[in-house]
Amino acid sequence: MAVGIFDSGLGGLTVLEAAQRRLPDVDFIYLADSEHAPYGVRTADDIYDLTCKAVQRLFDAGCDLVILACNTASAAALRRMQEGWIPEGKRVLGVFVPLIEALTERDWGDNSPPREVDVKHVALFATPATVSSRAFQRELAFRAIGVDVEAQACGGVVDAIEDGDFILAEAMARSHVDALKRKMPKPQAAILGCTHYPLMLDVFQEALGADVKVFSQANLVGESLADYLTRHGDKTGSGEPAYLTTGDPKQVSNRATQFLRRQITFTAA
Ligand code: DGL
Q1: Which of 158, 197, 217 to mutate to test the pocket of ligand 1 (most atoms within 8 A of CB)?
Q2: Atom of ligand 1 nearest to the CA of 69
Q3: pLDDT tens per residue across span 243-252
Q4: Architecture category of domain 3-94+219-268 in CATH
């Protein structure tokens, strides 16, 4: 069985890399909807339609399980997809829950009632669509009580990363941290709620200060996927990934190679 990994663009490659390290024999198919990225400034209906189309493409390519390695799609579309769109025998999982389980120090799938946790002041950095969905706060409320979340919609960071302009991405990340700190001067923890942001992890950490614990998704999702496949799936295959894009394969391959600092070759979806 192949496992699909979907993102609007290149950010999900951070999740794919971690999943490949943890599950070297699994066949992964990555799909970047580069033609329509960024999703973070689109309406929820638009994100839902685009995400269903992309996930269908991965089902058609032989994936029974698809990971939405995109917080924006997970926040704006996943619940609606799970309520009626996903065909029998297929699974679609998001990337929020592993992050919230780590923040609230829960084990995988622990569904016990919400309880008090150590962190009380949490900064959330995410795309405008993810922030306005309030999906993070909703999932957190199922697991923890008394946590104050201040969300910063980080417009422009994904565009700059997709354009390969890391100087601009860094400047924008710093200004979003400043804006957050004006609203919450002393966060104890910060969530990087967009799969593009791990590339800016050092920038976020430095701007926030060493005493702020920064939670980033890639490794957490890799771990929980390994756990999931141990329970439900098949962890064997050739380990040879395929990379698909709805954009220009040459341009996307160049950006991805720059992004991961190794040769990545995309083909047309
Ligand atoms: N990597 C996506 C996420 O995690 C980026 C969203 C976008 O395309 O704006 O939210």
Answers
A1: 158
A2: 4
A3: 999 999 999 9
A4: 3-Layer(aba) Sandwich (3.40)
- How many Å is the Cα radius of gyration of the chain? 17
Q: If we measure between CA atoms, which residue out of 138, 96, 103, 97 comes closest to residue 119?
A: 103
Question: 70 an active-site residue?
Answer: yes
* DSSP bridge pairs for 91: 65
Q: Which fold has domain 97-217?
A: Rossmann fold (3.40.50)
- Its pTM stands at 0.92
Distance CA 151, CA 193 (A): 10
Cross-strand pairs, 152: 125
- Full DSSP string of 242-262: EEEESS-HHHHHHHHHHHHTS
Residues paired with 122 in a beta bridge: 149, 189
Task: Please write the tens of the pLDDT for every residue from 188-238.
Answer: 999 999 999 998 999 999 999 999 999 988 888 888 888 888 888 666 777
Assess whether 194 carries a catalytic annotation: yes
CATH 3.40.50.1860 domain range(s) in the chain: 3-94+219-268, 97-217
